[in-house]
Recover the amino acids of this structure.
């Protein structure tokens, strides 16, 4: 058992856990035009009112003392650096000043995994932080958000979740923020850890069960501190395809990119034209991380990449590699150090 988990048990033995609930928007509190609006409900521009989602799940109060915390609600693809920094600061305050035992963040599924990874690498507290969303709006037949929210609170209130970093909970399944990715546009089982699988489950009998735990550093064990930052260094993602030239790479450099994630074909292969443009960008001081568009598997720093002065993305999705590279660039521009960071986290 983690030492912090033992302290958690001692504190909560004689009282119910206190869980903060932060709403950032997304499908989970969206309202469609009717109960069969499962696809373009976002275009309706409607959301549940404040407290409406929580009031629809009175069973939450049987699990923990749940406190709704104001935050801005917006489509997840609209989230910017400032929103991420504010979330980190809010989580720290909720744990330190409000003495919350856990935090649940509702989030749109489009970029849920990116926000979750950012928090996984930058939150400096051991308390459970759970990011949750839904694939069907609150107004839909068989809406999944209500049970997802209940299970997220169960996990955030569980002593077993202490020290495991930032977690995601959807479709009864608990994943590490580092490993999870969205794999389908509409299916409720879309969130998967393709290479490594889930950590456990919030199961139908009400139990929170962990079968694995993260081994790479996270939260309190990382070297990243975003306190006082106003923006992250610009990092762009360029996806390879047949006939791709260097125009997008040149444009990223021209826009001020400090790093580029190359989502190459196969095990990380850009086209010859992209290769030339990336070499040019690297010579100009832009950090190049070679990843893959495939969806799973490692991209390694081969002897050729090392000679070029590029790093490999390991098994991070390109958009997650972008988060890690942006954080790495707040510490160093040395590609050897950046490769160490990718190998570590």
């Amino acid at each position: 058992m983690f030492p912090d988990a033992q302290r958690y048990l001692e504190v909560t033995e004689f009282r119910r856990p206190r869980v903060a609930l932060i709403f950032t928007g997304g499908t989970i509190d969206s309202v469609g035009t009717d109960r069969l609006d499962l696809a373009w409900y976002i275009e309706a521009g409607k959301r549940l009112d404040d407290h409406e989602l929580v009031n629809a799940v009175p069973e939450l109060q049987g699990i923990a003392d749940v406190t709704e915390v104001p935050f801005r609600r917006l489509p997840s693809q609209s989230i910017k650096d400032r929103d991420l920094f504010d979330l980190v600061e809010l989580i720290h305050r909720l744990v330190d000043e409000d003495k919350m035992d856990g935090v649940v963040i509702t989030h749109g599924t489009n970029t849920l995994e990116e926000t979750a990874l950012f928090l996984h690498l930058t939150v400096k507290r051991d308390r459970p932080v759970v990011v949750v969303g839904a694939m069907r709006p609150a107004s839909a037949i068989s809406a999944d958000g209500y049970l997802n929210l209940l299970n997220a609170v169960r996990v955030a209130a569980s002593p077993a979740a202490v020290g495991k970093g930032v977690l995601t909970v959807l479709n009864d399944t608990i994943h590490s923020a580092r490993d999870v990715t969205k794999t389908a546009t509409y299916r409720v089982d879309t969130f998967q850890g393709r290479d490594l699988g889930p950590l456990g489950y919030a199961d139908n009998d009400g139990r929170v069960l962990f079968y694995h735990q993260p081994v790479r550093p996270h939260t309190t064990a990382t070297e990243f501190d975003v306190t006082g930052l106003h923006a992250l260094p610009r990092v762009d993602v360029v996806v390879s395809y047949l006939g791709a030239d260097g125009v997008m790479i040149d444009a990223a450099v021209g826009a001020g990119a400090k790093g580029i994630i190359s989502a190459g074909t196969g095990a990380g292969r850009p086209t010859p034209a992209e290769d030339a443009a990336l070499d040019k960008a690297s010579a100009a001081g832009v950090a190049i991380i070679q990843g893959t568009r495939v969806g799973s598997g490692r991209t390694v720093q081969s002897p050729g990449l090392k000679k070029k002065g590029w790093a490999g993305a390991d098994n991070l999705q390109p958009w997650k590699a972008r988060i890690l590279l942006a954080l790495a660039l707040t510490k160093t521009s040395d590609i050897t150090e950046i490769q160490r960071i990718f190998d570590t986290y």
Q: What stands out?
A: Residues 93 and 99 are 9 Å apart (CA to CA).
